[in-house]
Structure formats: structure tokens, C-alpha cells
Automatic annotation (TrEMBL):
Keywords: Membrane, Transmembrane, Transmembrane helix. The lineage of its organism: Bacteria, Pseudomonadati, Pseudomonadota, Betaproteobacteria, Nitrosomonadales. The chain crosses the membrane at residues 16-35, 423-448. It comes from Nitrosomonas stercoris. InterPro entries: ABC_transp_unknown (IPR019196), Class_I_gatase-like (IPR029062), DUF7088 (IPR055396). It holds the Pfam family DUF7088. Residues 157-386 form the ABC-type uncharacterised transport system domain. This is Uncharacterized protein. Residues 45-117 form the DUF7088 domain.
């Protein structure tokens, strides 16, 4: 048996010493990097712990500091560490906007500041950008994104919705009205009110005029005012249901649109257990309204529209019923049992929505006509992407293409929240305990080899 020489022992000590030095260097480097840099990976389903591209784009549009003031106590009886919850939520946004400034004020310790700000709830949040402010009482990406959108708009856009002819009421609560859609418009920064030509004492002037499925004929003078508004370059959203145009035939002629009588039959609706008269939108043209839009939309009792080029640049927004047709003489009794009539019916695909533009003076005039009013009604707004498509239409008509986007993702999976102590324990185990275990194992192996 050979005895290790002094030189070999010295070489072995140098090797062990170098190993220990590199080990501590590695641990120290990892500790320094963990303090100086922060990186995270979102492995949750639907990436629920990351910001949607919608929120990131909204942050990029706010050119300047965004001040977020939270009026909250240190602890809340129901929510617990409410400041910690909000701080964690806002920190996600601060990674994309370095000049987002978060400040906390205790409404109990500083009641005068809370009273001056009009704060009524513990945890209330006030956002300030330039000279505009928004107030939040709930904290989630949906509500925060809506607040950012309102802050990003330099001014509130106004909608006037025609009334007094049986139209779908813009703030109505019945199933056929548009109240839920209007509520969403208010959330993202629009103002709306009903327009009655009887009470209208000034020339029709608004960012967007909405004509939503009149049920009785308009007077000639009312139609003349609408045509004058269009001639002056006004933007228009016209929702047309099946049946008569109720005196608006001159408007259709002005726009160069012909409406086919009858309703669309879509056999694909049966696959989703829907009536055949519910046309499904799955194909969208290349347009700002439908950019990156890949959701199913539902159009109950839709009607076909045909565009005749007449001084307008047109883009068909969506086609439905590729394997369906337009039933020109559909009755209530036939809605679930219909067959294609080659002589009278029109084979699909069917165009039901069109965007029109033309240059008036130094600006672009925009019009959208949809052969359906049901898709934005309270009873059908929640189907598929109906709400998103409607909001996109309004944003485009208002000239706010930057705000055309789908809504922030909904939550799918639950969240794992770790306390500060738990995070510290995990970090200590990773950077201290495990390296010590490896070090002890190394010393034990070295000692065991020396004894052999």
C-alpha cells in the first residue's frame, strides 16, 4: 500500500480549497443577482398572474407619470393585509411602467386627507394622470384596465342614440335594449344619451350617432336631419333588423347598401344547440375592428346586406353561414324546420356587417352598418365575442384605434399566495441550507477518504 506523498496531500488540499472558494463565490453571486434583478415565469393556466397585452398597451399610451394613491389601513378585518394585496397587484404594472408611483395613506391616521379626497371605503384607490383622475373600489385587471383606458382618452367621446321610434334604448333594461352594452361604454370612457328630434334645438352634432332598429317610421324631416348629419361627415352606427327600414330607405341609398329580405339560416348553429336562425360569425376580414379577433359571435335573426360602391370605401367585417342561406319567406313556425329553396333563397356565405369610409374635408368619415341589432341587446350581449366586437366598432367609429382590443383575460385557475416569511424560508433553503448540506457532504467524503 502506497502512502500519499506530501505533494499529493498539498495538491488535494488546494483542490478542496478551490472547490470551497468556487462554491461560496457561486452562492454569493446568486444572492447578489437575486437582490439586484427580478425575473419571474408565469406557469399558471391562462397566464393569469401576468398582464394581458391589452394592459401593457394601455400603460405604453400613458406618456408620463401615473400616480396611484391607496387609502387603506394596515389591516382590514375582512381582507387582512389589504396594503400587501394592492402592493403585489400594482408591482406587476410597475415592471412595465417605471414611473408608476404608488403611495399609501391611512384614512384613520390622516382623516383630513381621506375626507378631502372623498374616500368612503377602506382600500379605495385614486389614479391620477396629468389633470385627469379615476377612482377604484375593486382591484382586478379588468377594472384597472378600464380606468387606464379612461385616463388615456384625452376627452370623453359622445354617442347620441336615436329614440322615439321604438328603437333599442341605449340605457334600457329590457331584453331587447342596449343597457348592458351602454354600461360597458361608460366604463371605458364614453358618454351616451338619447336623441329625440322633437327636443333637438341645435344641429345634430356628436362623435357617433347610433340608430338601433327603429320599429316605426321616421318622419321625412327626421330622415333629412340624419342625411344632413351624414353629408357633414358624421360617424354612424346603424343596426338593422329584419323587416321594414321604417322610412330609412334614403339612408340606405346614401350609403349604397341593399338589404335582402328574410333572415339568415345557419346549420352550424345546431352544433351549439342553438336555433337555425342564430348565425355564427367565425370569419372576419382584415380591418382595424376585427384585427386579431378570433372569437365566435352570435347574430340572432340576421339579415344580409349587399354593398354597392357609391363613393365609399367598404370592407365586409364578417360573413356568416358558409353552408347556410337567406330564407326570404321565413315564418315563426318554420324557424326550426327550414329547407333551402333554390328559386327564392340566397346561398351563403352571407355578409351581415360592413365598415364604410370616405374623406370629407380633411378628415375620414366612418360608418358601420350591421344587419342585426340583437347581438348587442341585453339578452345576447354575453354570447361569444359580441361585447368585444361591439366595443371595437365604437372605438373605431370614434377614431380610437389604439383602444381596439379584446378585454383582459378572465380568471381560470386559483392563485397560490406566499407570505413574506414563507418566501424568506424558501430563499434561505435554496441559497443557504442546500449549499451547507453539499458542503458537509463534501467534508464527510473527504474525511472518509483520508481514513482509508
Amino acid at each position: 500500500m502506497t502512502t500519499p506523498t506530501h505533494q499529493s496531500k498539498l495538491h488535494r488540499r488546494w483542490r478542496y480549497g478551490l472547490f470551497i472558494l468556487l462554491l461560496f463565490t457561486l452562492v454569493g453571486t446568486l444572492g447578489y443577482l437575486s437582490l439586484e434583478f427580478r425575473t419571474q415565469w408565469d406557469l399558471s393556466q391562462n397566464s393569469r398572474n401576468s398582464l394581458s397585452q391589452t394592459s401593457i398597451d394601455l400603460l405604453n399610451q400613458l406618456d408620463g407619470p401615473l400616480f396611484v394613491t391607496v387609502y387603506a389601513t394596515q389591516q382590514d378585518l375582512q381582507l387582512g393585509d389589504i396594503r400587501g394585496i394592492i402592493n403585489t397587484f400594482i408591482s406587476t404594472y410597475q415592471r412595465f411602467k417605471s414611473d408608476l408611483i404608488l403611495d399609501f395613506i391611512d384614512p384613520i391616521e390622516q382623516p383630513q386627507q381621506a375626507e378631502k379626497a372623498g374616500v368612503k371605503l377602506n382600500g379605495e384607490i385614486i389614479l391620477r394622470f396629468e389633470d385627469r383622475t379615476e377612482r377604484l373600489t375593486t382591484i382586478n385587471e379588468q377594472s384597472f384596465a378600464n380606468a387606464l383606458m379612461r385616463l388615456a382618452r384625452t376627452s370623453k367621446k359622445q354617442l347620441l342614440a336615436l329614440t322615439n321610434h321604438g328603437e333599442r334604448k341605449i340605457n334600457g333594461v329590457t331584453q331587447r335594449d342596449l343597457g348592458n352594452f351602454n354600461h360597458k361604454l361608460l366604463e371605458v370612457g364614453f358618454e351616451s344619451k338619447a336623441l329625440s328630434f322633437i327636443d333637438q334645438t341645435t344641429p345634430l352634432n356628436t362623435d357617433i350617432l347610433v340608430i338601433a332598429s327603429p320599429q316605426t317610421a321616421l318622419l321625412e324631416g327626421e330622415v333629412a336631419q340624419i342625411l344632413d348629419y351624414l353629408t357633414r361627415g358624421g360617424n354612424l352606427l346603424w343596426l338593422v333588423d329584419t323587416g321594414s327600414l321604417h322610412g330609412l330607405q334614403p339612408l340606405a341609398e346614401k350609403l349604397g347598401i341593399v338589404f335582402t329580405p328574410g333572415a339568415v339560416i345557419d346549420p352550424q348553429a345546431e352544433q351549439l344547440n342553438l336555433p337555425l336562425t342564430f348565425a355564427l360569425g367565425t370569419h372576419y376580414s382584415a380591418h382595424a375592428v376585427t384585427a386579431n379577433f378570433d372569437y365566435i359571435t352570435v347574430f340572432p335573426f340576421a339579415r344580409q346586406l349587399i354593398v354597392e360602391e357609391d363613393g365609399w370605401h367598404s370592407t365586409i367585417l364578417t360573413e356568416v353561414a358558409a353552408q347556410g342561406w337567406v330564407k326570404t319567406n321565413l315564418s315563426t313556425e318554420q324557424q326550426n324546420e327550414v329547407n333551402f329553396d333554390e328559386e327564392n333563397d340566397v346561398a351563403g356565405p352571407i355578409s351581415i356587417a360592413v365598415a364604410l369610409t370616405r374623406i370629407i374635408g380633411d378628415r375620414e368619415q366612418r360608418v358601420i352598418v350591421v344587419g342585426n341589432g340583437h347581438f348587442l341587446a341585453n339578452s345576447y350581449l354575453g354570447n361569444g365575442g359580441n361585447l368585444d366586437l361591439g366595443i371595437n366598432m365604437i372605438n373605431w367609429l370614434a377614431g380610437d384605434e389604439a383602444f381596439i382590443s379584446i378585454q383582459p383575460r378572465s380568471t381560470i385557475d386559483s392563485q397560490l399566495t406566499l407570505s413574506e416569511q414563507q418566501l424568506t424560508l424558501i430563499a434561505a433553503s435554496t441559497f443557504i441550507v442546500l449549499p451547507l448540506i453539499f458542503l458537509i457532504c463534501g467534508f464527510f467524503i473527504s474525511w472518509y477518504r483520508k481514513r482509508r
